[in-house]
Amino acid sequence: MQTQYALKQAGLTLPVTKEFQQHITTLLANQVLQKITEAVVINFRDPDYSAESGGFHPVEIRFIRKNNEWYFDYVTDFSYMGRVYPELEKEIDFCWSGNYVFHYLIGDISLAAERNELWSLWERNFMEYLSMGIYRVTVTVESC
Fold first, then answer.
1. Those residues with Cβ within 8 angstroms of residue 144's Cβ, 6 or more apart along the chain or in another chain
2. In a domain, 1, yes or no
3. What whole-number distance in Å separates Cα of residue 127 and Cα of residue 19?
């Protein structure tokens, strides 16, 4: 029997679509989450992504449990940055617990309309990449 999860937002309110939430809750439902589970991290990786050839950016999504409910903690999109010695760094960071949205070219984005527009664009692209089946997905459970 699969458990249904409702994903809540606190700190930020972004236009998260039902399709995105359904995909994530399906991933969570396939995990055996104990009552002591405090957080879940889901990583999406394109095995062919590299600094030399590019590809689809790695994405990390973390959810935290509060009062037996699941809340968005952050969604981070990484990319290789730097010319001589490129390193994976945060390109876009949506952080509910820190109440901020960050883009590496802009910095912190404070206007709600701009936050919402960036989220919608990012989510639409991410869901398209998921539908293409390019990501390897891993789920890590954090317990106390």
1. 36, 38
2. no
3. 8
Distant-in-sequence, close-in-space partners of 117: CB < 8 Å, separation ≥ 6? none
Determine the Cα–Cα distance for residues 76 and 53; give it in Å rounded to an integer.
21
For residue 55, being part of any structural domain is answered with yes
| Residues 96-129 pLDDT 10s | 999 999 999 999 999 999 999 999 999 999 999 9
Which pTM value belongs to this model?
0.93
Q: How many domains does the chain have?
A: 1
Run of H or E including 129? helix 112-132
Q: What is the CA radius of gyration of the chain?
A: 15
Range of the domain at 104: 7-143
Question: Bridge partners of 54?
Answer: 50
Q: Considering the domain boundaries, does residue 107 fall inside one?
A: yes
Query: Which CATH number goes with the domain that contains 123?
Result: 3.10.450.430
